[in-house]
Amino acid sequence: MKRIKIIFILIPLLFNKAFGQQDPMFSQYWVNAQIINPAQAGADGKAYLNVTGRYQWVNVKGAPKTHSISWNTMTNKKIGLGASYVLDRVGPSTTHNLNFDFAYYLRLNDNWNITAGVRVTALVNQLNFVDFYTVKPGDPLFSQNENSGVRPNGGFGFLISSKKLYFGYSQPRVVKYSFGSGATANNTNIVSHQFAYAGLNQRINADLQFRPSILFKTVENAPLQFDFNTAFEIKEKLILGLSYRTGDGIGAMVGLLNMANLDFYYCYDYPLSAISQISKQTHQITLNLALTKDVRRVNSPRYFN
After folding, report:
1. Which end of the chain is less packed: N or C, by CB atoms within 10 Å?
2. How far apart are CA 266 and CA 154, in angstroms?
3. Into how many domains does the chain fold?
4. Which residues are 89's β-sheet partners?
5. Is 87 in contact with 98 (CB distance < 8 Å)?
6. Dist CA 153 CA 21 (whole Å)
């Protein structure tokens, strides 16, 4: 009986994530904001390499696992470039996403900047149905695997920033499409996501900064989702944070900053949904490597990470 209950819990959770929200989910989105917004390319004014691994609902078979690697830099005071690769696995679905970003920075006045970013994307989505065990042998819904082939796409984003405040909006992928054959075609729609976010970098004293932020995410066939994040940066060496995601759970973060040219972040999420009956663990690890000689961070209009 317990096994049956687990199956009924997992089916709607895994398939809703696979076919409703295909873009990967990250905790404390700002630790790798370029993934969701091409306008973040070069936003720190330096060259960075970011590697992130997220392991959701540990010990649940078929639970989401996401890995990303991204690079970005400023070529001059007005142009940022970036590239990223995201591998996302959930249930029977595996998605490969390769992105190339271009960002143009424009100074509005002494306090505010605006950045426009564009993205070129190549996406491959695979659905592995053959390995499913079914009660009906030869079920046509699970008789063959599906592969979308390489699908080109594109996206865009904006970023408005001052020394303390920032506002962003992005649509990383604008073209919707479906793939598959026969009865499975209706289950493999690739849809567009929209992100909007805002944050504050407030220095309380010489040793402490307060950094709250909020993220809104909307996608077809899924409810509007909010991420509420807060973090305290201590002596530019340690960062402690908390987060809450509607319909999902709560989380905590610890980060070690300016270790030579490396920043390290660890996030732990605790689910508040039905999945908590079988797993209470989601882990995310991020390494952010500065590739420039001047590795110490400075507060600037482009300071986000």
Report:
1. N
2. 31
3. 1
4. 65, 94
5. no
6. 17
Lowest-confidence pick of 229-233, 251-255, 258-262: 258-262
Strands (E), 130-279: 146-147, 151-161, 165-171, 177-178, 189-190, 193-200, 202-205, 208-210, 213-219, 222-234, 238-245, 249-259, 262-271
Token output for 74: 């400023």
Whether 276 and 260 have beta carbons less than 8 Å apart is answered as no
Q: What's at 13, amino acid-wise? A: L
Residue pLDDT, tens place only, 174-215: 988 777 655 444 456 678 899 999 999 999 999 999 999 999
Question: How buried is 260 (Cβ within 10 angstroms: 0-12 exposed, 13-18 middle, 19+ buried)?
Answer: exposed
Domain that holds residue 36: 2-53+62-225
Nearest residue to 24 via CA among 79, 74, 84, 76: 84
| Single-letter code of the amino acid located at 176 | K
Q: Does residue 289 belong to any structural domain of this protein?
A: no
213 alpha-carbon distance from chain centroid: 15
pTM: 0.84
Residue 234 included in any domain: no
Largest CA distance in the chain: 68
Task: Give, in order, the Cα–Cα distances in Å from 278 to each of 12, 63, 87, 106, 212.
Answer: 15, 11, 25, 49, 31
